[in-house]
């Protein structure tokens, strides 16, 4: 746990990446596994994570991400995209995955399937899309913590035009929506932000005991 706190103090939202340094495939695989193992509501993982490596695509995305340099300078750009209009089809796929993984007949999971559908599929589309979008933030947390353990910098980014990202990446045709962006790589020595003291609320201000 001491390493976790140390890592949490070490990480920050990197403002300037060293464009000459790339994250190794080995470390990328670890980060992908950390995201894959992330908690999600019902274990449904109602999102996709797009690794944008093509420099031409990233150059197109930069202007619709407030011109932020991290989009093009970081080793990798990740787009967390929530599944839109999530419903019975995705729940059925999840039930089949459970059945195969645990060696169970799908009939044995019907009650669980019906319960999820009653809670999710009955919601208005807008509510479901808000819910799936929120799930991406949980996955981001696993990415942040795993990356810090590996000494890899991550910048979570909400400063982008989702509709433009959707258009450039062709996400709408895939039933996806750009919910959250994260850039990963290594901080540049010229990024003064890394030297700033971390500012957080005190325990007394943040926590409430009842």
Describe it:
Helices cover 46% and strands 14% of the residues. With 210 residues, the chain is α+β, with helices and mostly antiparallel strands. The radius of gyration is 19 Å and the shape is globular. The two termini are 26 Å apart.
Describe what is shown at a glance.
The chain has 210 residues and is of the alpha+beta class.
Topology:
Layout: H1 2-10, H2 25-36, E1 47-52, H3 55-61, H4 70-73, E2 76-83, H5 88-102, H6 110-120, H7 125-150, E3 153-157, H8 162-169, E4 176-185, H9 203-206
Antiparallel strand pairs: 1-2, 2-4, 3-4
Helix pairs in contact: 2-7, 5-6
Strand content: 5-15%
Reading the helices and strands in chain order gives: HHEHHEHHHEHEH
Going by helix content, strand content and strand pairing, the class is alpha+beta
Overall shape: it is: globular
Q: What is the topology, as strand order, of the major beta sheet?
A: 1-2-4-3
Distance between the termini: 26 Å
Number of helices: 9
Q: Oligomeric form of this entry?
A: single chain
Into which percent range does the helicity of residues fall?
40-55%
- The average pLDDT score comes to 97
Number of strands: 4
Give the C-alpha Rg: 19 Å
Give the low-confidence spans: none
The largest sheet is: 4 strands, antiparallel
Index terms:
4-stranded antiparallel beta sheet; globular; 46% helix; 210 residues; alpha+beta
């Amino acid at each position: 746990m001491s390493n976790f706190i140390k890592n949490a103090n070490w990480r920050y939202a990197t403002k300037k990446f060293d464009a000459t340094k790339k994250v190794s495939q080995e470390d990328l695989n670890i980060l992908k596994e950390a995201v894959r193992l992330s908690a999600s509501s019902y274990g449904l993982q109602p999102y996709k994570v797009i690794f944008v490596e093509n420099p031409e695509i990233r150059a197109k995305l930069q202007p619709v991400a407030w011109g932020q340099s991290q989009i093009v300078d970081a080793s990798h750009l990740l787009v967390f995209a929530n599944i839109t209009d999530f419903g019975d089809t995705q729940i059925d796929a999840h039930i089949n995955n459970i059945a195969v993984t645990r060696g169970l007949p799908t009939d044995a999971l019907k009650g669980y399937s019906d319960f999820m559908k009653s809670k999710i599929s009955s919601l208005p589309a807008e509510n479901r899309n808000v819910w799936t979008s929120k799930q991406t933030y949980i996955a981001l947390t696993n990415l942040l913590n795993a990356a810090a353990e590996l000494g890899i910098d991550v910048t979570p980014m909400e400063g982008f035009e989702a509709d433009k990202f959707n258009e450039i990446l062709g996400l709408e045709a895939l039933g996806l929506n750009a919910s959250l962006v994260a850039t990963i790589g290594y901080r540049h020595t010229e990024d003064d932000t890394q030297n700033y003291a971390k500012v957080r609320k005190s325990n007394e201000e943040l926590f409430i005991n009842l």
